[in-house]
Specification:
GO molecular function: carbon-sulfur lyase activity; metal ion binding
Number of strands: 11
Shape: globular
Mean pLDDT: 94
CATH class: Mainly Beta
Keywords: Lyase, Metal-binding, Zinc
Largest sheet: 8 strands, mixed
Strand order of the largest sheet: 6-7-8-9-4-3-10-11
Protein name: S-(Hydroxymethyl)glutathione synthase
Family: Belongs to the Gfa family.
InterPro entries: CENP-V/GFA (IPR006913), Mss4-like_sf (IPR011057)
Helix content: 10-25%
CATH architecture: Beta Complex
Length: 139
């Protein structure tokens, strides 16, 4: 599967784990996107850069980094610094996937009260997310 930025200067290739879509309500995602970011998980080690001259990586925390095109500003992916986990901006996919399933919201305790989704989703707090990634790094 491929994804790209708005201007086409950054192109990625990867394999999806499944068709489940997640929404992140953390303060960084909301500030970066002026809303939530909706992502889809990819298989570990499958991320390849087809066109990367304008790919920038931002170290957004002690354990995660974000990527964007430095020409048009499109958010492309978030990954752990050890690259054991990565998700892609679902709206950057080149191909339309008909059976996407919006099934999880993370950092739900950071979500402002003025919006909500109608979907019934699994909801993880900031503490839940940190525990999840800490448990994965201990494996």
């Amino acid at each position: 599967m491929k994804a790209q930025c708005v201007c086409g200067e950054t192109i990625l290739e990867f394999d999806l784990i499944d068709h489940n879509v997640n929404a992140c309500h953390c303060s960084i995602c909301r500030r970066q996107t002026s809303g939530v970011i909706m992502t889809i998980n990819i298989k570990q080690g499958s991320l390849k850069f087809i066109k990367q001259d304008h790919l920038s990586i931002y170290n957004s925390s002690s354990w995660g980094e974000r990527s964007f095109c430095n020409v048009c500003g499109t958010n492309l992916f978030w990954r752990t610094k050890d690259q054991s986990y990565c998700n892609i901006n679902v709206f950057s996919l080149d191909q339309t996937i008909k059976d996407l399933n919006f099934n999880m919201e993370i950092f739900i305790d950071n979500k402002p009260n003025f919006y909500s989704f109608n979907n019934s989703t699994k909801k993880l707090t900031e503490e839940d997310v940190i525990k999840l990634f800490n448990a994965q790094s201990e494996d």
